[in-house]
Amino acid sequence: MDESPTGPDEFVREGFAGQRMLVVPRPAVERALSHPVTGKLFVTDAGFFPHASRHGRERPVGAAEHVLLVCTDGSGWCTTGRATVPVGRGDAVLLRARQPHAYGASEADPWTLWWLHVLGTDSGDLVDAAREAAGGPVTHLRDAAPVASLVAQVIDALDEGTTTTAFIRSSGSAWHALAHITATGRRTPGPGLSPVERAAEHLRATSPRRTSAHELAAMVGLSPSQLNALFRRHVGASPLEYQTQLRMARARELLDSSALSIASVARTAGYDDPLYFSRQFTAVHGMPPRAYRARPTGA
Predict the structure, then answer these.
(1) Contacts with 276 (C-beta within 8 Å, 6 or more apart), sequence order
(2) Which residues span the domain enclosing 286?
(3) Average pLDDT of 100-113?
(4) Which has the closest alpha carbon to 97: 122, 119, 126?
(5) N or C end: fewer C-beta atoms under 10 angstroms in the chain?
(6) Do 218 and 178 belong together in one domain?
(7) What DSSP letter does each residue of 179-233 carry, written as one string?
């Protein structure tokens, strides 16, 4: 469903050996966008281009839809505005609808791409969240396989026809793929952990022991203010708030699954003072620990 101008003559748009490509007919797209589920996020096109030699597109006015490209092998490039950035194995590219862009496979090592186009009332927010996490259109995934698998599930669902069931399945997989990119995408390439990932991993491994902001920042080679800003941007909370979340998760688990006293739960969750623990728990959950334990549970 690509209505943008064709690219340069040297680009090959499709027709690669072993490729898969599904394009939803326009009338079916219109119906899906009026559905309460698929109207929020709908995949209009999806495909898999293996070893796509000379593949590329140039869209001076952008595409009609938001575009996701996931490179699982080889390399290429992407241009938005005046900036051209390399795209390598494990990278994902997110392009907003109507944003001028161009992209193409490298000549020496053509990429293998999993890709999809999306529309819907929530599609722009999902794409923007992933771009914000990456700081631009290209995000580096530690492992691209889960996202590629989700795009494959989108293709499989669309291959079942233009039924509402197939469309809902494809929308769910696409939503999962974009959410996965937002949660795991990084600004720096390579297999190593970023400073924020190293800090979060340390906090998870040592919880409920408290680690000071200065100590945590020194571990990952940043100043406390730098780490706090990066942590908030990528995790959605400060390191201190994240440690409290980990402690509270442990407390909830104990309250739900054990008969320990509130004081014992507090100590196990890292709080020496049961009264302070109760105040913190109430501030987070809107009820004290005893009320939380007594609430109705079950599926």
Answers:
(1) none
(2) 195-294
(3) 96
(4) 119
(5) C
(6) no
(7) HHHHHH-BSS-SSSPPHHHHHHHHHHHHTTS---HHHHHHHHT--HHHHHHHHHH
